[in-house]
TrEMBL record:
Domain of life: Bacteria
Cited PANTHER family: D-ISOMER SPECIFIC 2-HYDROXYACID DEHYDROGENASE FAMILY PROTEIN (AFU_ORTHOLOGUE AFUA_6G10090) (PTHR42789:SF1)
Pathway: Amino-acid biosynthesis; L-serine biosynthesis; L-serine from 3-phospho-D-glycerate: step 1/3
Pfam families, per database record: 2-Hacid_dh, 2-Hacid_dh_C, PGDH_inter
UniProt name for this protein: D-3-phosphoglycerate dehydrogenase
Molecular-function annotations in GO: NAD binding; phosphoglycerate dehydrogenase activity
Enzyme Commission numbers on file: 1.1.1.95
GO biological process, one term: L-serine biosynthetic process
Family per similarity comment: Belongs to the D-isomer specific 2-hydroxyacid dehydrogenase family.
Amino acid sequence: MARVLVSDKLSTTAVQIFKDRGVEVDYLPDLGKDKDKLLEVIGQYDGLAIRSATKVTEKVIEAAPKLKVVGRAGIGVDNVDIPAASRKGIIVMNTPFGNSITTAEHAIALMFAVARQIPAADASTQAGKWEKNRFMGVEITGKTLGIIGCGNIGAIVASRGVGLKMRVVAFDPFLSPERAATLGIEKVELEELFRRADFITLHTPLTDRTRNIIDAAAIAMMKDGVRIINCARGGLVAEKDLADAIRSGKVAGAGVDVFETEPATDSPLFGLDNVVCTPHLGASTSEAQENVALQVAEQMADYLVQGAVSNALNMPSISAEEAPILTPYVKLAEILGSFAGQLTEEPIKEVEILFDGSPAGMNTRALVAAALAGLLKPQMQSVNMVSAPLMAKERGIAVSEVRRDKTGVFDGYVQLTVKTEKQSRSVAGTCFSDGKPRFIQIKGINMEADVGSHMLYTANKDIPGVIGELGMTFGRKGINIANFHLGRDHEGGNAIALLYLDGPLSEEFLDEVRALKAIGQAKLLTFDV
Ligand SMILES: NC(=O)C1=CN([C@@H]2O[C@H](COP(=O)(O)OP(=O)(O)OC[C@H]3O[C@@H](n4cnc5c(N)ncnc54)[C@H](O)[C@@H]3O)[C@@H](O)[C@H]2O)C=CC1
Ligand SMILES: O=C(O)CCC(=O)C(=O)O
């Protein structure tokens, strides 16, 4: 039975879902904050469900040999070392929509709080001061709202802004003019947004391009009296520069939910007039927490129990419905990759995968990942579908895929071509209705052969006596040949043979086979069937 650790505070709905789906679960909501304890226990688990307090570092991943999936109940995965997880074949998934509305609402709440100085007015009133003249606010209607990052949350903020009768402008390199028109907003360049906005709100991930997207130079371009809201990630705004601009009066106020260092126990922004801070509360509503807990538990259980993948950041999605249809082709792709990987002894430069007919309409990203996993496995035992694309990229292997309509007698087939400095080798296969993979072409030579656990592949010249010689050599040693498949390109040309064996062969015997005059190449192949 798969075992999952929930190491951050999550709605107990998640715990119930794991139990209902037959997954053993330990709910230890404070464990994520204790790095040493996490390292001590993580080795026992197949899955780890987290929010933002647990940091899934390379060290944690190294200490987790059984771990198969990390599920983030939320959006941002900057607390997970995704490349390290991918290298170990661990799927990292998030719940991209469950808390978007809630976070957008928090941005709007902060915008109002800053526009009307509500927290300071509340503190003053409750202190019995009645400072009616101190808290002069600004109206929101008719003001320009500048949105940086118009994805899920940015778009919801945009619609709320439009509803509040604001003029909304957005900077997002991936926002299409059509989408902007549908949202009723204007797509602009960043500098124009800085020049025009009365309120600026950030909704991008933290990347090398967005880090400090608001710093002293950016603030200098803004209107005097601009107000800035950050409910996305600390690090998007240079806190010290913002603090200086608030002190100078250039920026009239800021609403800050996220900080460069969290938990933020100190910040240049603390204690300044009209800075409203919250402790990363963007996603903290009961509705959003229920959504993300339910979603992450369902997704993780789907993967651990059925092999279905959704919302993974390092692996193509495979739905529960798709999994049974795709599985035979995933196996086929892995076997073709494994065939080529076992025969290739020099560095691979290029891999081309052709999908003809039925597999062309499938989730080919998953099939490519499976083919690469099979290809790299002879060199790297721990590689799997999650890590293989990254491993191939890190090794400089160019991967391409071609999809085309059915061209031959088969409903569909997959052909893998592997190129090295010296040669190009191709192998093709199909799945029949029994779901079993078959080789249908090797090095351009047609044949039809089942896949066995232990096989001997030989390449030879098409001359009389080869089969006899091979049979005699096996017979002399008392080794049974379970099955024998042959193919050639033309009479007297290149020929190949695939022999099915009942078990492995010794290197000594293989040398004897290789020494046969008629045999050019002999390689023992093993397949996980
Ligand atoms: N405060 C909180 O509790 C929460 C914070 N978040 C954070 O909010 C942020 C946005 O989340 P979503 O809208 O779901 O993400 P998303 O991926 O749907 O949208 C992000 C948008 O940013 C855009 N973008 C990327 N680089 C950009 C750049 N250099 N300049 C301008 N735009 C750029 C993308 O094109 C995309 O449209 C994330 O950082 C997420 O972690 C999300 C949920 C809760
Ligand atoms: O889980 C939380 O409270 C933080 C949510 C968040 O930042 C996210 O989903 O990106």
